[in-house]
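Here is one chain, start to finish.
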Amino acid sequence: RRDVSGRVDEVLPLVGLEDKRRKLAGALSGGQQRLLNVALGLVHHPTLLVLDEPTAGVDSAARRQLKRILRNLQARGLAILLTTHELEDADELADQLAILVGGRIRAAGPTGRVIAGFFQDKREVSITLAARAAGDSRLAACQHMLRSSGLAAVGSGHQWTGLIDNRQRQVDHLVHALLAFDALIREVRVRDP
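Its structure:
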């Protein structure tokens, strides 16, 4: 206990919160609260820092800052166990990766190799359709086409997302087929999973 105050003075600058030392945690922004969580995990000089979804729900500036801090901690030799649904974060921060599906490890090893092996040629696709009248048969046909391609509706049924095998250029074929049905496509996003 006698070391806590001095240790707090050491860890707050590591996470960029030295000027917030006298603030209550509830008065901090969401991103600052995430940084405070990291600082709390560092107070006792751990050899392993365990973080659960550290970038969830924070804005892009806080996300960049948190990633920079985690990379600095790694460079200092701290082992970090990180859970995330964001493979981009895992790819950027992790040396080793384990993918859990249904509570079981489905793939594990060096990050790049695991991602490539697990997802192969699949692409994460998100297609947003403009709103149409509910009775419009073209909307039902487009939704059926999206569902058959392996995409799932998000929310109101205008946004669809999922993984599509892109070896046969399925994404291009799907977009052309939707356009042939006179779909009003607002956005198409394709990225590596």
